[in-house]
TrEMBL record:
GO terms for cellular component: plasma membrane. It comes from the Bacteria. PANTHER family: SUCCINATE DEHYDROGENASE [UBIQUINONE] IRON-SULFUR SUBUNIT, MITOCHONDRIAL, SUCCINATE DEHYDROGENASE IRON-SULFUR PROTEIN. This is succinate dehydrogenase.
Amino acid sequence: MTAVADNSVHDTSQIPAPEGSITITVRILRFNPELDTEPHWESYDVPALPTDRVLNLLFNIKNYVDGTLAFRRSCAHGICGSDAMQINGINRLACKVLVKDLLGKKDSAGKPAVVTIAPIKGLPTMKDLYVDMEPFFEAYRAVKPYLIAYGNEPTRERVQSPADRERFDDTTKCILCAACTSSCPVYWADGSYFGPAAIVNAHRFIFDSRDEGAEERLDILNDAEGVWRCRTTFNCTDACPRGIQVTKAIQEVKRALLFKRV
């Protein structure tokens, strides 16, 4: 869908303006399937402190201006991954991005730079910034993201050396926010591609010395919609809010397939 022009005017005078606050123009790509045929931009002039997070701006708009604004959030501390969205065109977590990091130089009229917020791409928009995550989690479940062990249940814990744990440490950091997957051009063009996050979570178990399901996962990812669809653009690595080397993990899975060695 193509977004239409912004013709909105909102009264934001009810939003509390703490001492030291500045006015931020927040443009949000809105879409209500019950009312709209196409997404459209709406603007809000919101008072904010430089140390406020983008999530604070959204809360102020929802609480004081328009309660119909829809977005996901949960922990608000960069752990749950619920509030991934496009902020100034880049996939980020709204709870981690500070207003001061988005402020640019004022234009000739003295107006502050506009902060744009839109839903992540590649997943169906259900309402406003709220997207359908089911295709994302379907791919995640398909790679069997859990420990697979055969034989009798052990009588003691499965011991692992620090070196073996270090082998897959990076990919344990994934919080399933979908920022990496929804930044991938291949995923935008073909939603059947497993996507970076699913491959990262497969990597986490493929290289776990306690796991016995590596071959099963490698067979799954050897599919036409698996790791070979990756074009190594590094979009996913740049988008990851946890700093995971996503592209590196995908390349390691490719090498495991090529050389049949984990």
